[in-house]
């Protein structure tokens, strides 16, 4: 009985939510409405250095790319342009209000090659082998169930497809004066890489995106 209790405890620890601090402000509609306004701020694209992200991504016209944790969809215009009219962008999030904001912003800009998928905290809910690339920008540290989410992303990638993670360092000042990255971000870069590799992926390349603030990692599933 003691062994069974220990196993149940360990299983619970492995499946428990792990990003409680990062997700505290997402727990109700009122706080998410504030987040939608922040995520829709045109200056956010400048802060993200969106053009540099697009230049770094292995995107070509005609590809399908999934924006995992799209928020208000600030990156959708750049991703849409990168894959062109023959390509497709899948805007994915777990919150209907975020996804609706992305839909509105996409319609306002006439993005004809963008579709929308509502996932949940354990599954991106994308079709199997639908994507050449999945990118998550400032979202990985919000994953409450990384093993399950990573498994669902791997299923969504075509053979040869890649996952690109762009996220903050877990270091003082990495998120500026707005948020304490040491408290907000769950894992620093090297620990994220270890976690992703422990869940079915292998690292292809890592690089700094914004010095002292954000890093970028390229991964492919182990087949």
Structural class of the secondary structure composition? Answer: alpha/beta
Instruction: Please give the share of residues in helix.
Output: 25-40%
Q: What's the CATH H-level superfamily name? A: Vaccinia Virus protein VP39
Strand order of the largest sheet: 3-2-1-4-5-7-6
Helix count, DSSP H or I runs of 4 or more residues = 9
Shape: globular
* Through-space gap between termini: 38 Å
Strand portion: 15-25%
From the 3D structure, determine the CATH topology: Rossmann fold
The CATH class assignment is Alpha Beta
β-strand number: 7
Order of helices and strands: HHHHEHEHEEHEHHEE
Low-confidence stretches: 1-14
CATH architecture: 3-Layer(aba) Sandwich
How many structural domains in the coordinates? 1
Descriptive account of the structure:
The protein is α/β, with parallel strands linked by helices and 223 residues long. The chain has one domain: 3-Layer(aba) Sandwich (Rossmann fold), CATH 3.40.50.150. It has helices at 2-15, 29-40, 43-48, 50-56, 76-83, 96-108, 146-156, 181-184, 189-197; strands spanning 64-68, 88-93, 114-118, 131-137, 157-168, 201-210, 214-221. Strands 3-2-1-4-5-7-6 form a seven-stranded mixed sheet, sandwiched between helices. Helix 2 runs parallel beside helix 6 (96-108). It is globular, with a radius of gyration of 17 Å.
């Amino acid at each position: 009985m003691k062994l069974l209790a220990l196993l149940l405890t360990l299983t619970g620890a492995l499946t428990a939510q792990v990003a409680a601090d990062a997700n505290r402000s997402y727990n109700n509609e009122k706080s998410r409405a504030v987040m939608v306004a922040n995520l829709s701020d045109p200056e956010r694209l400048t802060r993200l250095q969106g053009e540099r992200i697009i230049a770094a991504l292995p995107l070509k016209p005609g590809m399908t790319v999934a924006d995992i944790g799209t928020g208000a969809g600030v990156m959708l215009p750049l991703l849409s342009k990168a894959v062109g009219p023959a390509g497709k962008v899948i805007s994915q999030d777990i919150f209907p209000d975020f996804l609706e904001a992305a839909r509105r912003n996409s319609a306002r800009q006439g993005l004809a090659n963008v579709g929308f998928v509502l996932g949940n905290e354990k599954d991106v809910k994308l079709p199997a082998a639908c994507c050449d690339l999945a990118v998550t920008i400032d979202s990985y540290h919000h994953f409450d169930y990384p093993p399950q989410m990573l498994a669902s992303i791997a299923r969504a990638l075509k053979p040869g497809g890649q996952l690109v993670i762009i996220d903050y360092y877990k270091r003082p000042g990495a998120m500026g004066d707005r948020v304490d990255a040491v408290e907000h971000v769950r894992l620093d870069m090297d620990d994220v890489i270890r976690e992703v590799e422990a869940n079915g992926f292998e690292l292809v390349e890592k690089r700094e995106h914004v010095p002292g603030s954000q890093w970028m990692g390229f991964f492919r599933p182990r087949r």
